[in-house]
Amino acid sequence: MSAPNEQAAGRPERTDVVLGSVPGLASLYATALGRLAAGRLGRQAAGTPDRGAAQEALRLPAVRHVVRGVAADPERLVAYQRLVGDTVRDTLPSVFVHGMAFPVAMDLMVRADFPLPLLGMVHLDNVVEHRRPLGTAEELEIAAWAENLRPHRAGTQLDMVVEVSAGGETAWRGVSTYLAKGIGQGVREGGSAPEPGKRPAYVPPVPTARWRLGADTGRAYAAVLGDYNPIHLGALPAKALGLKRHIAHGMYLAGRVLANAAPNDRAYRWSISFEAPVFLPGTVEVALHPRDGALAFEGWNAASGRRHFAGRVDALRPDGSWTD
C-alpha cells in the first residue's frame, strides 16, 4: 500500500511497512552494532578502509514504517516529566512524543537496504510541529520515513521524518537531520560539497539558568525512554565509538528547555540545532529570551566558550501561520 498523497505532493511513492508494535530499542541497537561490525570487517577484507562513496550510489529505501494503535505509558510519562523538570499533566510533552516514535524511525534506519550506518551518525538538528495538544489516553499512529539525502562538507546528511496522527489527522510532525561522517564526502551531483564557512566568534547572552549534569544523565534518560545508545551510557562505550567520553542525549537537552518554554495548551513549533556535544558530567549555561515574536534559547559551556545548542519556540497565529 502506498503512502497517501505522496505522488500528489510531488514526493516519491513509498510503500508502507506496517509493524505489529513499536520495536524495542535494545534489539535495534544490537542490530546496528552487528551492521557496524560487519561493515568494518568487510572493508578490512576488501582492503578499503575509506568509507567515502559516490553520492549517487547511495539510495534511501522507498518505504514508510508504520505502527498503529500506540498509547502512552502513564508511568513512563510521569518519569519523563520528573526527569526533565516538566509539569505532571494529562497532555504529552513534545519530546516524549519523539521518544515514543523514535524506535519506529530507528527500525527503518537499521534495515539492510539503509545506505548509512546508524551508530556513529551525528544528530544535527530537529524541527517539530506540535500541531495540537495530545491527550495521554489518545490512540496514535506513527509513520516514519527517510528523505532528502544530500552532501555535507563532512559526509552525507539526510532527514528522518516522523508523523504522529490521532483521529485521522497529523497532530505532531518531526524532522530530524543526521550526518554520516566520511560517507560520500565531497561528492555531489554537478560539483563538490559546499566549503565550510568561518563561524563568527560566539558571544553568549546573559544566562537565565545553569544545569549541572551528572555522569548518569544519559543512563537516566535511557531508563525512561529506552534510548541506550552507547555514546550516552559511559566513557568506555563512548570511546569505542570515537568520543573522548559519553555525552548527553540531544533530546534530553531539548526536553529540559521545552519544560520551561513550550506553550502546552496550544499548537507550537520548535527547532533546535546541535553545535557541540555536552560531555558528562558537565555544566551548561542556558538562556531563554524573546526574539522576533518567538522564544529563543541556547546553551553553552562557560569555560570553553563553545555553544552546545540553539533554537526557538514559535506559537501558531490565529491565521494558521507561525510567528517567524
TrEMBL record:
Pfam families: MaoC_dehydratas. InterPro entries: HotDog_dom_sf, MaoC-like_dom. Residues 195-288 form the MaoC-like domain. SUPFAM superfamilies: Thioesterase/thiol ester dehydrase-isomerase. Gene3D superfamilies: Hotdog Thioesterase. Belongs to the enoyl-CoA hydratase/isomerase family. PANTHER family: 3-HYDROXYACYL-THIOESTER DEHYDRATASE HTDX-RELATED, 3-HYDROXYACYL-THIOESTER DEHYDRATASE X. This is MaoC/PaaZ C-terminal domain-containing protein.
